[in-house]
């Protein structure tokens, strides 16, 4: 299922954060939240993810329930994606993972934010084959899809992407705050795993 709203719509933060929260509570069996913000700081059109990650870090750095990968200083992109996902799988084995990325789309959809209830397939518009990410993802349509996608990414307005990243980060912070009370306590999770181990050995 997909939920969408234009980033300038004043109801977009409430509507899309609620979509993320509702998706989580369909299967509330996670101990923490991991947000993976995909992109690079080399092209303005592909910098939405790192900008969102940096904005979230300003609000949530050090929060024990929310972990952010992909910022302006430490972006997550095609070259380090698999290594990052392996690290997350090892360190955050029971995390609810939200992926964030920019994408290209039809001209009249530019500025639209989409919450999609399935893993993100990064790099599709550029023909890249990268592993899927997340239980759910949010993406922003930053420019028109066409035959010169790399050029489009280079010539996307930085101010536009910055403004969109501010809205996306507010959506994610709001959703995280609403999800945190419904997370499974870490201690209870450890006890459940110990119980499962005893059951399988008896």
Automatic annotation (TrEMBL):
Keywords carried by this UniProt record: Hydrolase, Protease
InterPro entries in the cross-refs: Pept_HybD-like_dom_sf, YyaC
Keyword presence, Ribonucleoprotein: no
Record-level Gene Ontology MF annotations: peptidase activity
NCBIfam families (alphabetical): spore_YyaC
UniProt protein name: Spore protease YyaC
Pfam families found in the cross-reference section: DUF1256 (PF06866)
The species this protein was found in: Paenibacillus rigui
Alphabetical GO biological process terms: proteolysis
Top-level taxon of origin: Bacteria
Primary gene name: yyaC
